[in-house]
Structure formats: C-alpha cells, structure tokens
C-alpha cells in the first residue's frame, strides 16, 4: 500500500481502537560461580548493554520531556534473579568497564578513518553513559522499572518461575507451582501481585486457566492461530476472549505487526540504513594480522574464542560480507520514518476489523525484548519515535486509536466473549513442535520421572505429618524444587532445537536433574549432606523466598495432587516411552517403604595401599570409602599390592580385595621402576578378572601411583576413568618442582587428571589447585571431603566427658602426670606437616603452661631432624616421639589428649583433624588448604598462621588455659563432623559422580 493509499484510508476511517505494545524480557538462568567468562553468561551482559539500559534511557527521556507513553513489559523471574545477583552485578560492571576501555582504544585506532571514527565516538559516548547510569542505579535496574510502573508509564507482567513450557509439565500441581513462584517473585520485587502473566512460548492449554485465576492472574497473551481455529469471532474483530472455565482473559498476538517489526527480511530491521548485527570487530579483526590479533584478543574469551564485542561499523546495506559503513544519523531518521509507518499500518488494520463486535478492537503487538537494541540496534530509538509521533498526532487529533496496556483494556470493562481456547504455542508449527521433536524429546522422560519422585516425597510428608519439622529438610526440599524448576526451563529444549549451543543446554538439563535426585536421595535416606546442599545453594541462589513459601505451595497442592489424572498430562501421553534413560534405571532409596533395588554398578578401584598396609592417609580413606559404597548399592572390587601374611583375595566388609604380588628382584631398583612394575601387575590382575567373566562399569583410580594401570585398563576395555587426587607434588613442594623425579610425578598427575572423565578432590583448595595446575574444567572436578568415624555418640555432643577410665589413666601416666596437660600431633614426619614449627612454638607455650607435654606420633624421614631440634631447644623432658602406633594406641592417644595440633604448611584435606574433632578434642590447625576449610575459627577450633610460631603458641596456650572454651569448641566440632563428614554421606555423593559418568 502506498503512502497516498494509507492517507486516504485514514481520512475515511476514524474507528476508535487500541494498540498494545508488549516486550517479553527473559533470559535463562546463566549464572555460574566459575568460570567467569562463559559465552552463555555474556548473553546477560549483552542484553543489559544493548536492550535494558537503552530502554530505560528512552523511558527516562520521554518522562523528562513529558511525552506520554504506555506499554507493557514482561520480566521473567530468572532475568530478575540475574539483575539482582551481586555476583552478576559485579561482573557486569567489570564488563562495562572493559567495553569502555575497548571503545577508548577504538577512538585511537580509527582516528584517521573518518568513515568509522564517528561511529567509534558513538560507542564511547553510549558506553560511558551506560556505566554512569548503572553505577548511579547502584547496579540494580529493577527499582527503576518498578518506579516506572508506579508512575503509570509501563505495566509489568510476570512469567512462570523458570520459563517452563507449562503444557509439557506432567503434573498440574508442578505447573501451578511454577506459576505461583513466578507471582511470588514478582511481588517480592514490585510490591504488588501481578495482573498479567506471559505464558512461556505463548504455550496454553485448557488446564492452565484455573491455575492462573487461582494465582490472581487476569490476562495472558496467546498466539493468533489459537483464536483463529476456535469458534470465536474475536480473531477477526481484534478482541480478546475469556477461557470457558475461568475469567482469565487471553489477548492474541497480531501476526501482521509482528512480521513488520520482527522479520529481518520483510520487516524494519532489514533496512539498509540500520546497523548490521553480524559484522563485529571481535570477528573482523586479527585474521591475517598478528598485531590486530594481539589488539583484539584481550577482549575475547580467555581461551581465545571469538565473540561479539558490541562494536560494529557496518550497516545492513546489501547481502553478503560487502557492507557499507554505518551512519548513525541515517539510522535515526529511518527509525522515525518506520515509527510513522507502523502507526499508519495499525490504523488501517483497525479500520478493517469486524464492525459488529460490541467491544472495541485492540491490536496486540508482542515481541522479544532483546529484538530492541540487541538484534535491532535502533529498536529502542524506534520505540521512542513511536511515542513521540503518537503524542504529536494526539495533540493534533489525527489518530484513531490509543497505545495502552492490556490491563487498561480490562479496566474499561468491555464485554468479552467466552471461548474454548485450544492447546497452542507460538513458534514453528504452533503446537510446541520446537520444544518437542526428535532432538530434544529425551528431556521429558527424565523430567517426568523426577517430578514423580518429588511429588511422592510430598505425599509421604502428608501421610506422615512431617512438614516443617526440620529447617535443614526444608532447605533440601526448597533446593530440590529449585533444581527441578531450572531443569524445566523451555530454553534448553529451544537451544537444542536451534542447534546453537546444544551441549550446554544438554549439560544444564542433566545437571539440574541429577542435583534434584541427589537431594531427594538425602531426604529419602535420612542422610543430609549440608556441604553439598550449601554448594548447590551457592551455585543457583535464585528465588531466595522459595523456602519460606514451601508450606504455601504444599498446601496449594504439592502434598495432595488430586488433579494429576494418574500422571497423564495433555499432549504428552506417550512421551514416557521416548528417550534414553539418564541413569539406566528408576532410582529408589533404600527405605523401609520401598523394595531394595539391585547393585547399582560394578566399580574397579585401584589403590597402591590398602589395609592392613597403611603408609599414609590414602589407605584409610580408600578403605572407608569402599566399604561405605557397598551400602550405596555399589559392588566394589579393589586391586592393590600384596602384603606379607595377607590373603591374595578376601572380602572385607563386602569389598572384594585382590592383593597382587609384585615381581621380585635380586637387586634394588629405582622408585619409578618399582611403580612401573606395580602398574603392570595391577593391569594383568584386572585382565585376569575380566577374562574370568567380570564386567566393570568404570575404573576409580586413587593418586598418580596407579595411573599406568588405570590408563591401560581404560583404553583396552573402553571403561570410563574416575580419579581421586589426594595431593599433588606441586603442593607437597610448596609450588616448586626442583628435580627430575618431582617433574615426572607432576606430569603423571597431570595425565591422570586429564585422562579422567571426572576428578574427585577433598577440599576447595584442591579444586583450585587441580583447575589451575592441570587445566581441568571446573565442572569436571568434584569436591567430596574425606570422612571420619565418630567415637562419641550423638547424645554426647553437648555433654562431652573427658574423664578417663582407670585403664586410660594408667596409659596416660606413661606420658604425663595428672596435672600435666597434653598436646598431641599424629601424622607422617615430613616437612609439609610443619612439626618443626610446632616444636619451636612449644617453648612459648611453656611460658604460660610450664608443665605442658607434647606427644608426636608417626614415622617419616624427618625423625632424626626432629630429634635434633628437640635437643637444641632442650625439650627432651617435654616431648615424646612415639614412632609408629597401632590403631588401639592411636585411639588411646586421642582420648588422653587435651588439645590436638596440626600445624601443616601444605594439607590437601587434614583427615587427622577430623578424627580429633570426632573424638571430642579441641583442635588448633594451620590456616591452609583443607584444614582451613574444616575449621571455623573461634567457633569449633582455632586457625593459626602457617609457619608462624607465635600465632600457633597463642592458640595452644589459650585452649589449655581455658578448658570451658575448649569444651565449647569440641562440642561444635563434633556436631560438624557428624553432620558434614559422615562416610555414608560421602559414599552417596561419590555414587552421584558415578551416575554422572553413566549419564554422559
């Protein structure tokens, strides 16, 4: 239609009507603790820089100039969670600062290129403004949007909690929970309950209407074809309809205005004067010029992956790569022209709507918010031009309609037709095809299984009246629901369909499902791992009020879902037969109300030491883990080296132990040759087992000494490899590799870590060490602490009795008189344990506690050196070097000690500190490595500065002098050990790592 034709129509048709502009603002929850430069996290940064800050700038300018405007924005709870998150705020501020630095460099680089320099100045000007505005808003945009709503300029809609495709949720109660949590998050941010809800992907089904009404939702947006295929006349009349079973009103998306704005070919964004999205200097520079590459590389991802920097110098101009330079003034003029054209086109549409409808027509124009600014750079300017032109026409009375929000239409109380609204969505096919096709249909089988488990738990709570009895249980329930919600996000299926970053979407889906099932396992088994729970909460801290609202959700249906129709749901009645199992079985907890399930998987474990052979802490850790894995439905086979007078095979507490003899040699051999021989023997023993008919599901290797056998078995039998790295050569030598042997060990550790599908470590310090030293991706490193067997009963936690029996009194008399307090250290006598620091600190303690005695138990290469230090400090009467002690003596030493001291200079974990805590003894440790993570300073122990004799002596003297404080610490420490470092919990967590390997 020509401009002359448009004008003629406008003069002859002055029918009153409305146009509603709606922007749907949403991002999936892409927050990650580490790493901090993920491609997906940049989606948020780009949206903030190119869409949300520019939109606010437009709104503020219109408001300041008193240009009336009214539009609707839906803000999803996940987007709001990203906006309010302090970590994301900090990272985005850094992103803006870095972008501004690039813009400043571009001013210099383009100084002699007039055609590009003006555009470079535009970017510098805008990014300077965005940084100033963001800091002025205290890094939180949400209050600014709230004020605009309170002032009447915008109407904000909500969305379901994680943008789940609601008709594909199996159980209506969980669809209802998604809607309600979305409403609660909206109320938390904006102070009122929402009136409108953006249904994710405009996906509607009849059962949703009553849920929406129950949550107070008055209107939604659906796709146009949903009305066109119904019996309603509303599609032709451009009027909304009400659902048959509920007063919720559905406004239909207008396809004509959508095509006009959205289409990159027929629509406005494809105009030759607008900025070209795909020509960014992040991709343009540095292909053939090393100086250019050095220039642009710091502004790409840390691994050198090219990304959009946001600086683009070309306009759409023509097809292909041969683009013309961008001219800002031309684009601004074109945006104003297109705004006029859009308003004229809507007037023509309204004039052609059905005239017999009792309600006035309303054209609903919904778009993804990121179209404006991110994809269509001039989009925010177009919106501004739209309202400026509308205001000009209204002043001259040359308009036949108004720009309003859907809620305004409802408040005018026009008669609205009731109609059956069919199941529908937007997108290809119009019925959810994008979110359910052969590439992504596997998702729903696992979502539905997990839904079923979660609801079963809530049903059992209803029967057993368990609700609210435990704050910790409520935290676990809230986190389980949070993880399921995140797995239900429609974004993952969409990404897989679009084939953009399908591996990321797949990983996120599996990750959240596994976490949810892990938490349900805790609830079902009664073994609560607060360490794992805290890590999950820290990873996804969205929806902070979820725990407080659990009871409301529970009473709203989670505990008694009568409307589930035996789990059959809408269009997915046959979906349970599709896909492949994430875990190859239905996971059931070993609870009395459930039948036991068969052994989960057969584990081949490799360890160079295993009881009764105990050289260091590894032997005991592998022993405790393997026997507790047996209780977690794992069949464990351990290959280790032979020990004199021990059977070649025995079943120890359910663990199959094979002690492999090593070749004998008439002469001594080098250490690395001995390691090679041991690995050959272990690999051959494995081969014999497999030839005998054993089928293993994966290999679990402990430390570098078994790497050769692990690698051989992995490659020969195509078995996944999991490794536990208990310590590193780099750490043992304080970051210095000084000789060929150390370098060789370091290389073998690197190889073991990188050959493994998953790596397990015992502390956060080790997580960072492995990630930094061996470049293992953080998502493949699992923090699973070592455990400890508590010697005291739960009833003793707050009433620890340290009174020794008569036998213990006699035992104690070998080391100290009744009035002489005892300090106790046990461990290998090596430099990194810091025993020499302890000896030098003892004279300082004696100044306060003259009669103090120190017992040092263990053997190692520093024995003679320690004897020399004791002699030089004249401590012979105060220090006992016991040498090796068996388990019985070891236990007695723990019970006679008044304070245990572990002054390590390097400590990956610190199991002996936990053992002391489990024995009810106050502890002083070095503030390093795993020890630093075990102790909360001043709460359940003291942490001294590593290598600092004064700091160590102060804390030892304080605990020896203040017995009441020591008992308080011991009580807190014992409680921590029982709740966080229980071997059953640790074995269960290890099983989850096994399941992750199976899932992959």
Automatic annotation (TrEMBL):
The keyword Ribosomal protein does not apply. Residues 615-790 form the Glycosyltransferase subfamily 4-like N-terminal domain. Substrate binds at residues 253, 270, 426, 491. The active site is at residues 201, 368. One of its GO terms (biological process) is alpha-glucan biosynthetic process. Keywords: Carbohydrate metabolism. It holds the Pfam family BE_C. This is 1,4-alpha-glucan branching enzyme.
């Amino acid at each position: 239609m020509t401009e002359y034709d448009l004008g003629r129509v406008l003069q002859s048709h002055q029918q009153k009507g409305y146009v509603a502009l709606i922007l749907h603002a949403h991002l999936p929850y892409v927050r990650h603790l580490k790493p901090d430069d993920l491609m997906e996290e940049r989606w948020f940064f780009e949206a903030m820089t190119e869409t949300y800050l520019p939109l606010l700038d437009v709104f503020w300018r219109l408001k300041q100039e008193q240009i009336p405007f009214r539009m609707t924005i839906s803000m999803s709870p996940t987007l709001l969670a990203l906006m309010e998150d302090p970590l994301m705020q900090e990272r985005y501020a850094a992103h803006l600062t870095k972008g501004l630095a690039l813009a400043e460099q571009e001013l210099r680089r383009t100084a002699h290129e007039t055609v590009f320099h003006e555009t470079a100045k535009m970017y510098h000007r805008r990014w300077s403004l965005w940084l100033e505005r963001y800091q002025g808003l205290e890094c939180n945009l949400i209050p600014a949007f709230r004020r605009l709503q309170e002032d009447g300029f915008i109407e904000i809609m909500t969305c379901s909690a994680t943008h789940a495709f609601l008709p594909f949720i199996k159980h209506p109660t969980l669809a209802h929970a998604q809607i309600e949590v979305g409403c609660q998050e909206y109320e938390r941010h904006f102070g009122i309950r929402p009136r409108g809800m953006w249904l994710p992907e405009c996906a509607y089904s009849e059962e949703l209407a009553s849920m929406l009404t129950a949550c107070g939702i008055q209107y939604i947006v659906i796709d146009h074809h949903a009305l066109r295929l119904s019996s309603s006349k509303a599609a032709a009349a451009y009027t909304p309809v009400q659902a048959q079973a509920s007063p919720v009103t559905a406004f239909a998306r207008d396809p004509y205005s959508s095509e006009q704005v959205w289409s990159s070919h027929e629509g406005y964004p494809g105009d030759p004067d607008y900025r070209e999205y795909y020509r960014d200097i992040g991709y343009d520079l540095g292909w053939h010029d090393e100086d250019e590459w050095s220039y642009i590389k710091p502004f790409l991802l840390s691994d050198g992956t090219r990304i959009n920097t946001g600086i683009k110098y070309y306009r759409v101009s023509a097809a292909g790569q041969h683009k013309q330079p961008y001219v800002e003034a031309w684009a601004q003029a074109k945006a104003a022209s297109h705004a006029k054209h859009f308003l004229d086109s809507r007037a023509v549409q309204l004039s052609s709507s059905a005239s017999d409808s009792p309600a006035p027509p309303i054209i609903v124009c919904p778009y993804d918010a990121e179209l404006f600014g991110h994809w269509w750079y001039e989009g925010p300017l177009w919106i501004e031009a739209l309202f400026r032109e509308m205001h000009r026409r209204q002043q001259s009375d040359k308009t036949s309609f108004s720009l309003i929000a859907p809620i305004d239409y409802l408040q005018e109380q026009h008669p609205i037709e009731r109609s059956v609204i069919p199941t529908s969505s937007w997108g290809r096919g119009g019925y959810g095809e994008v979110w359910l096709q052969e590439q992504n249909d596997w998702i729903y089988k696992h979502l539905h299984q997990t839904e079923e488990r979660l609801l079963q738990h809530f049903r059992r709570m209803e029967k057993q009246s368990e609700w609210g009895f435990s704050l910790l249980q409520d935290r676990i329930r809230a986190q389980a629901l949070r993880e399921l919600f995140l797995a239900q996000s429609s974004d993952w299926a969409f990404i897989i369909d679009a084939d953009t970053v399908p591996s990321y979407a797949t990983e996120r889906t599996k990750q959240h499902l596994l976490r949810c099932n892990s938490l349900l396992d805790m609830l079902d088994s009664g073994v609560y791992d607060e360490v794992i729970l805290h890590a999950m909460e820290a990873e996804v801290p969205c929806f902070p009020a979820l725990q407080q609202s659990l009871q409301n959700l529970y009473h709203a249906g989670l505990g008694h879902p009568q409307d589930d129709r035996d789990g059959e749901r809408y269009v997915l009645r046959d979906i349970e037969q599709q896909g492949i199992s994430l875990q190859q079985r239905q996971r059931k907890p070993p609870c009395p109300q459930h039948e036991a399930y068969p052994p989960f998987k057969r584990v081949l474990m490799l360890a160079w030491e295993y009881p009764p052979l105990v050289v260091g802490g590894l032997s005991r850790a592998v022993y405790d883990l393997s026997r507790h894995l047996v209780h977690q439905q794992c069949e464990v086979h351990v290959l280790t080296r032979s020990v004199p007078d021990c059977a070649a095979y025995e079943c120890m507490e359910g663990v199959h132990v094979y002690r492999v003899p090593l070749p004998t040699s008439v002469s001594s051999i080098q250490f690395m040759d001995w390691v090679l021989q041991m690995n050959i023997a272990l690999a051959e023993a494995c081969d014999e087992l497999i030839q005998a008919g054993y089928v293993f599901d994966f290999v679990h290797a402990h430390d570098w000494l078994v790497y050769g056998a692990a690698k051989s078995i992995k490659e020969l039998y195509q078995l996944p490899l999991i490794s536990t790295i208990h310590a590193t050569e780099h750490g043992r030598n304080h970051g210095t590799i000084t000789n060929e042997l150390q370098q060789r060990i370091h290389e073998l550790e690197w190889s073991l870590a990188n050959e493994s599908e998953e790596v397990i470590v015992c502390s956060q310090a080790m997580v960072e060490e492995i990630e930094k030293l061996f470049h293992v991706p953080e998502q493949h490193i699992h923090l699973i602490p070592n455990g400890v067997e508590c010697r005291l009963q739960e009833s003793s936690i707050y009433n620890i009795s340290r009174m020794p029996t008569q036998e213990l009194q006699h035992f104690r008399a070998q080391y100290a008189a009744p009035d002489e307090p005892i300090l106790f250290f046990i461990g290998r006598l090596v430099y990194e344990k810091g025993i020499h620091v302890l000896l030098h600190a003892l004279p300082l303690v004696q100044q306060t506690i003259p009669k103090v005695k120190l017992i040092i138990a263990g053997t190692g290469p520093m024995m003679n050196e320690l004897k020399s230090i004791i002699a030089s400090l004249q401590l012979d009467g105060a220090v006992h070097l016991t040498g090796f002690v068996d388990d019985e003596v070891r236990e007695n030493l723990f019970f006679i000690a008044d304070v245990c001291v572990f002054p390590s200079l390097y400590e990956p974990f610190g199991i002996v500190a936990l053992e002391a805590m489990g024995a009810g003894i106050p502890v002083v440790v070095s503030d390093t490595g795993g020890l630093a993570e075990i102790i909360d300073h001043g709460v359940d122990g003291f942490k001294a500065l590593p290598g600092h004799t004064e700091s160590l002596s102060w804390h030892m003297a304080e605990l020896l002098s203040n017995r009441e404080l020591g008992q308080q610490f011991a009580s807190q420490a014992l409680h921590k050990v029982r709740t966080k470092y229980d071997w059953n919990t640790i074995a269960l967590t290890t099983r989850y790592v096994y399941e992750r390997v199976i899932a992959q």
